[in-house]
Write a structure and sequence with these properties.
The complex is a heterodimer of chains A (133) and B (223). Chain A has 133 residues and is mainly beta. Helices cover 6% and strands 41% of the residues of chain A. A 4-stranded antiparallel sheet of chain A has the order 7-8-9-10, with no helix packed on it. In chain A, strands 1-12-11 form a 3-stranded antiparallel sheet, with no helix packed on it. A 3-stranded antiparallel sheet of chain A has the order 2-5-6, with no helix packed on it. The longest helix of chain A is centred in the N-terminal third of the chain and has 4 residues. Chain A is globular and about 55 Å long. Chain B is globular and about 55 Å long. With 223 residues, chain B is mainly α. The longest helix of chain B is centred in the last third of the chain and has 33 residues. The interface between A and B is medium-sized, with 12 and 17 residues.
């Protein structure tokens, strides 16, 4: 019965797949929010929930995508809502730089999406720890 | 007629000593508000139990309509709240009782603390009481998700992220409670099972121990 109860932990995880999100030409130095859909299997229920990513170019012109999930307690962050060119979380006023470096409240930088560019389109994959800061 | 039935059973099973032992004993003067009004602080334990009984009864009736499934959970709660006769009242009993039981339990804990009733020989009863406290918090957490509305979903998501912050074990605790990687269909069925079977079972066992000990040791003396 214990094996029955812990089955979700022990079943093999599905590999993360890449999803086409937006044309590379739309990306600017200013972070913009883009929505995309991923296919999700949740037990007996399959769905295509909408995800969000904040995508921008860094000072070298490399494109990177940040997860909007605050690293403090998991609320949703916004870019520049306080007019200070920072990410801001309305729940406990956590702040992050454009690269996702945590400035206030949050214990770690914003997560980053695995990203690849093919034929002028941005593809996003699984979330990983921030590599920009 | 009732007396006849009682006597018929009593002759065969000798039940009088049993209920006398459970119920037939005087309330000491220092815990009786009729003697000293300030003794009302001794009522909070009984009030906690009274509300717990209401929670169990209203919860049993709620499961007549509730479905722990991500497609239908919200619709079933909406239906029982707005279409079923007295649905709003039964759900409100469970909703407000859930908060009130925490309040009463907290006041009961304060009374036990400030009268020093946790001291020897009643240390074990304090420990069992603390376990009951955590079971109640668990019931509050798992019950909060069941309506499957935005508030329930995001509160659970954030709570599980807090659980994840436990050193070393956090990610496993989170995944076990999630029943997978996300708050979804398997989380809801899991929380439902925990809310209506696992935690109430543990709660009843601990309450039995709590009451057995208070009967055995008696209420602590006056200050």
């Amino acid at each position: 019965m214990v094996r029955f109860a812990v089955d979700p932990i022990l079943t093999k995880k599905t590999e993360g797949t890449f999803v086409k999100v937006v044309e590379e030409s739309k990306i600017t130095n200013e972070p913009q929010e883009f929505k995309f859909q991923v296919h999700q299997v949740d037990g007996w229920y399959e769905s295509d929930p909408e995800m969000a990513a904040w995508i921008a170019k860094d000072s070298q012109g490399n494109v990177f995508a940040l997860s909007p999930v605050c690293k403090h307690l998991g609320c949703t962050i916004n870019w520049n809502s306080q007019n200070d060119n920072q990410y801001f979380c309305p729940c406990h006023e956590a702040k992050y730089t454009k690269e996702g470096k945590n400035l206030k409240v949050a214990p770690s930088p914003l997560d980053e999406y695995d990203l690849k560019i093919e034929d002028g389109f941005i593809y996003l994959g699984p979330v990983k720890p921030n590599t920009k800061v | 007629m009732f007396k006849g039935v009682y006597n018929w059973i009593d002759e065969r099973l000798d039940i009088t000593p049993m209920w006398r032992d459970v119920a037939d004993h005087e309330v000491p003067e220092h815990v009786n508000p009729a003697h000293h009004f300030s003794a009302f602080v001794y009522c909070f334990g009984g009030l906690t139990f009274f509300i717990t009984v209401i929670q169990i009864l209203s919860g049993m009736f709620l499961t007549m309509y509730y479905v722990p499934d991500i497609i239908n959970a919200y619709a079933s709660v909406d239906y029982l709240q707005h279409k079923v006769a007295f649905g709003g009242i039964v759900r409100a009993m469970h909703h407000w009782g859930a908060s009130l039981v925490i309040v009463m339990m907290f006041l009961h804990t304060l009374r036990v603390f400030f009268t020093g009733s946790y001291k020897a020989p009643r240390e074990m009863n304090w420990v069992v009481g603390m376990l009951i406290f955590f079971i109640m918090l668990g019931l509050g957490l798992t019950g909060y998700l069941l309506p499957w509305d935005n508030k329930a979903y995001f509160a659970t998501k954030v709570t599980l992220q807090i659980a994840e912050s436990v050193p070393y074990l956090g990610p496993y605790i989170k995944e076990l409670l999630n029943g997978g990687e996300i708050v979804g269909a398997q989380t809801l069925t899991r929380f439902f099972a925990i809310h209506v079977f696992f935690l109430p079972g543990a709660l009843l066992a601990l309450l039995a121990a709590h009451f057995f000990m208070i009967r055995k040791q008696g209420i602590s003396g006056p200050l």
